[in-house]
Design brief:
It comes from Parafilimonas terrae. 38% of the residues lie in helices and 21% in strands. It is of the alpha/beta class. Helix 1 (18-23) links the parallel strand 1 and strand 2 (31-36). Helix 7 packs antiparallel against helix 8 (238-258).
């Protein structure tokens, strides 16, 4: 049975290069929802619109509603239009030629796909093959993942209290608790960047090393949201949450040791703890 496939890409202050990234997957879906979260958004899809006039739906409201709400919006639209699966993409992610076709074939050939809430790919180490070997896991990043929309109706929406960061982890955990699987195809590779990478001289061994940096606001969301998820899933996924916390501590350390925004970073971290304690979720408030 041929499955109907749509895609969504959520934008925030995109540059023109995003159009070439979109071209890497748009021809493999029947519909693409482009949702621009930029305040006073002015993203133009031309010449994408002229190339795919019936395929693109542009949502451009001039307000940043975060990731979770926009994913729910796209899932609702895709369900209304009769789609079975939704490919979710970040603006800084793309596939090499032929990879998306191979990815969808792996999903279509997966015998127990009705039991899978989300399929995903490898974005960490590039490989040359595209075979359909798979592994069951507890977590996938949103970008490059394919949501089973029938499962979405049973699992429930992405948690909009998070706004951004760990939205994907929470949905994966919730899916597993509802009896669904999370499946990763490690030989399907997607190009993806996470944060700003700069080369800095290590204070430990004085050797240059690439380090990932995030704005103080992003560290706020990461810190507040991991505390929220830890409290929401107190009896399961302890190893996964411990790993996320260790990774977050490393990101915080990078900012405090190697960036010039130490004071603002500390202020945002303190606010994250305070807001979590006071149950202030959603979009960061001044």
């Amino acid at each position: 049975m041929v499955q109907k496939k749509a895609a969504v890409v959520i934008l925030y202050q995109p540059d023109e290069s995003v159009k070439n990234r979109i071209r890497s997957y748009i021809q493999h879906v029947e519909k693409l929802y482009i949702i621009d979260n930029t305040e006073a958004a002015a993203f133009s899809t031309h010449p994408l619109l002229s190339d795919y006039p019936k395929k693109i739906t542009l949502i451009n409201e001039g307000v940043n509603e975060g990731i979770a709400k926009r994913l729910n919006q796209a899932c609702s639209l895709a369900l209304e239009e009769g789609f079975d699966y939704l490919l979710t993409m970040d603006q800084d992610s793309w596939f090499d030629e032929t990879v998306v076709k191979a990815y969808f074939k792996c999903i279509n050939d997966f015998k127990e796909r009705a039991t899978v809430s989300m399929f995903g790919v490898n974005h960490e180490k590039k490989i040359t093959g595209t075979d359909c070997s798979y592994q069951e896991c507890n977590f996938l990043i949103t970008s490059g993942s394919v949501i089973n929309l029938e499962a979405y109706k049973k699992v429930g929406p992405f948690d909009e209290d998070l706004f951004i960061d760990f939205v994907d982890a929470e949905y994966c955990f919730k899916s597993i608790e509802h009896g669904f699987k999370i499946i990763k195809f490690p030989n399907i590779f997607m190009h993806h960047s996470l944060g700003e990478i700069q080369t800095k001289i290590s204070l430990k061994n004085l050797k240059p090393r690439g380090r990932t940096f995030h704005s103080p606001a992003r560290l706020y969301y990461m810190t507040r949201n991991i505390l929220y998820i830890q409290s929401k899933y107190t009896h399961r996924f302890k190893k996964d949450i411990s790993k996320y916390k260790k990774d977050l501590l490393n990101r915080i350390k990078n900012n405090l040791l190697y960036k010039n925004n130490k004071v603002q970073t500390i202020k945002m971290l303190l606010k994250a703890f305070k807001d979590y304690k006071n149950k202030r979720m959603g979009k960061l408030q001044d």
